[in-house]
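From the pipeline queue, job 12 of 40. The input is one protein chain; the requested action is below.

Action: predict structure.
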Amino acid sequence: MKLTFFLVGLFLILLRICLPNVRLWHHRADEGNMIMSGDNFREEIHWSGKYRLADDDRSIAEISPGGYLKFRVNDTTMKAESDLQGRISYKLYNGSEDLPLNDSGRSFIAAQLQKMIRLGFFGAQRAERIYRQGGVSAVLAELSRIKMEGGRDAYLRLVMRSDSLTTDQQIALLRLIDNSGDMAVRQHLLEQFSPVQLRDSAVAHEWLTVVGHLDAAYMKKDLLRNRIDSNLTVDRFDTVLAIVSRFESDVDEQDVYISLMNLPQMQMREPAYAVPWLAAVGRLDPSYMKKDLLLRFIGKDPGAVLAPALFDTVLGITRRFGSGEDEQEVYKRMVDLRSNTAEEWVRLIQASAGLDADYMKGDLLRTIAPRMPWTDSLRAAYRTAAKSIRGDDEYGRTMRAVN
């Protein structure tokens, strides 16, 4: 019994907390209900039949015969009904008295219609009319008046269909999208921006800003991966990395890093792209993810080349893996690089001594032995690294590789 009372009390508390955001919307063709409810506040719209708003937004021009439109805000009510001949009659209540259809009543109707408009009601017909009268700029201005999320859709869809948006209009649209509380709607609208539109640096900057404000990592990931192409400039590349580094999802981060690595600039290993990419990869938590990305970056070609700065960066990331197996796998791939200098061979040999297990140290050193140039300094470095092997058998096999 106590548990029952507790659960009931908890439910009432949660209901109280959530109540200001309660919104119910039910509709079919030509009829529906929309209810918004909060603390000491309630708005309702109920309708049946087809309706049309007058062009001045101050009255209802038409309701299909037998239909009605009712709007309630707390104690105030406006109900418009159409008889079988299509004649419209009104019932108006301002919270204290019924109003006749005089100047005061018509002003009351106009005020209620404006409230409905701000909720997005009449959106489809108004959006088309506003566009015809004032173009995209007028529709964008109207969007700022609509306070209910779903109510903006008709206006946004119309703007997105326009193929003549200026840079300023696209930026204004993106800022409106950024103010939407519905993340799914944001994602859908951001998807509508084409690669051609995003070649404008100002538009691309704003688009990336809005993407970065999305809550879910998978949404940001999908948008970024679909818009990564060879036109990604260095500054936008850095912005993408900054967004991805805040995903809080290593899997989603890895997916974007793979897509970035497929850019021609990355395949050419241009430092302006490769260095920040490697730094971002190094901040991932799981060593196996870093390993997989680094192996992709180094490539499978035995004759691959890494610039000295990139070689040192890859080596530095790998040495911090905290997993000997993953480290060894990357080191072995680096052994096959054609460009290794004497100094790089020394650093690879020294890295082997940092591995935990004797068999890993020995295996890596024996992989290095037939590939490195045998100078006196490299032989000395090899012997020093081999001495870190504690087991006699493994040490002996490793030393025989240089005799």
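Job complete. The chain has 19 helices and nine strands.
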